[in-house]
Design goal:
Distance between the termini: 23 Å
Oligomer: single chain
Number of helices: 3
Strand content: 15-25%
CATH class: Alpha Beta
Largest sheet: 5 strands, mixed
Order of helices and strands: EEHEHEHE
Helix content: 40-55%
CATH architecture: 2-Layer Sandwich
Radius of gyration: 12 Å
CATH topology: Transcription Regulator spoIIAA
Structural class: alpha/beta
CATH superfamily: STAS domain
Shape: globular
Length: about 100
């Protein structure tokens, strides 16, 4: 289960599984719910995410695009070295705030 912590207009989601095709739809619904509930800023804790595929990357990009429309950026925390390296190679680290 993905944990969501709200603090005003900020939501933090702690993902509990890899961000793969099989999990993307569930995570997408939870992100959409958080944004529809008034969260203007979103942080995703990837501490339990060991891998992601193209669908997972697509979800991150789509989430970033939704937040960017309102002048915000997607923040990623506890990113593994492998995933951070992938994001850098794809130059996505310029779009996401990696903490």
């Amino acid at each position: 289960m993905t944990e969501i912590i709200r603090d005003g207009d900020h939501a933090q989601m702690k993902l509990d599984d890899d961000l793969m095709t099989s999990t993307v739809e569930t995570v997408k619904k939870k992100i959409k719910h958080a944004l529809n509930a008034g969260a203007a800023q979103l942080s995703l804790d990837l501490g339990n995410v060991n891998s992601l595929d193209s669908m997972g990357l697509g979800l991150l990009v789509a989430t970033h695009n939704s937040l960017q429309k309102n002048g915000h950026r997607l923040q990623l925390s506890n990113v593994s070295d492998d995933i951070a390296g992938l994001l850098r190679k794809l130059r996505l680290d310029t779009h996401f705030e990696i903490a």
